[in-house]
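Subject: Sanity check before I submit

Could someone independently write out the structure tokens for this chain? I want to compare against mine line by line before I put it in a report. The sequence has 228 residues.
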Amino acid sequence: MTPLAIKLVQAFSITKRVIHFYYVHTDGDENGGRTSVQNIKRIIERITQLPIETYRVTSDGPSVRGNFERYSDRIVILVRSQSDEWERFTAIKELCHALIDGEEDYSSEGVETIRELVTNNGWLDDEASAQVRSEQLAERMALELIYPLEFRRQDMATVEEEGFAAIGVRRGVPVTWVERALNVDHITACESVWKVLGAVDGALGADPVPHVKPYYRTADQIVLKEAS
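---
Independent answer below. Compare away.
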């Protein structure tokens, strides 16, 4: 495998752990088959052992949908006010940075990173900066969390009749990502990565943090505080 392919498999491996703990330690999805963003947040808090504060912000500036900030005692996620589907996807994508980012992946130049990301809009790009590759990995992880492969397989059977936009509303996923996720080539690529990770199933423990009593909480929508 190339170094970038290894990064992708590692990112999917981390995603697999989050999914595992999501179903072991929470009551899972919201009613109607939507991934609970709040339960994903709780699992990532458990894994990182840092509290996560999530805020909705209003911005008239350049279009950056969200931002991730890590401090020694907490993680702060800022999500720009937008549609429900985009707020959900953005929140999960920013949460994924807490699991994969190193110091070299951080950039304060959010707008330039997004411009480069649009230019290099592939799975991973050898020529892209570390910051853009981090964004690409976080997006792939977010898609697997908010719109799991088993949901996509189900929706492939109804997409012609239901349409991408209706599926996006039902699943709570931006239509842009529904279209990409239901592309046959994309599903095949994801299946190949998950196949590589098939042997990991038995290696996952019962709790994301050893020797901590398991907990159970009610699934609900992500709570976005209005930033003052």
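---
OP: Matches mine. For the report I'm noting this point. Residues 103-121, 206-224 have pLDDT under 50 and may be disordered.
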